[in-house]
Specification:
The structure is a single chain. The protein is mostly beta strands. It has 1 helix and 11 strands; from the N terminus they run βββββββββαββ. Strands 2, 4, 5, 6, 9, 10 and 11 form a 7-stranded mixed β-sheet that branches. Strand 7 and strand 8 form a beta hairpin.
Amino acid sequence: QVQLVESGGGSVQAGGSLRLSCLVSGITYSHYYVGWFRQAPGKEREGVATIYSAGDSIYYADSVKGRFTISQDNAKNTVFLQMGSLKPEDTALYYCASTRPIPRIIGARDSILSRNEYNNWGQGTQVTVSS
């Protein structure tokens, strides 16, 4: 059974930084993506960043490109989201999620950042950015 557990959320002032962690367990296949998503009150859940299991495919939403960095520590089964230059509009509940077995995606960023590709989800961690 696949499980994902997020941690690292909190409150920060605009311009600050946070690092989210996603501990992944139970995945028995080798080729998959782990992504970060967020959902603000009254808005749809949106893809923020995703990374392939081999680490050679990474995509970011335009809204976070240049400010957020996704990475992974395979030895610790953990995927990180380093968030910098935070803005009040980054305030949301942040989720990590994993896909079924999937080949590396080339070029189809909007597809792999779509929540429809992910079938296992964590419970979320809250990020609040004040102005």
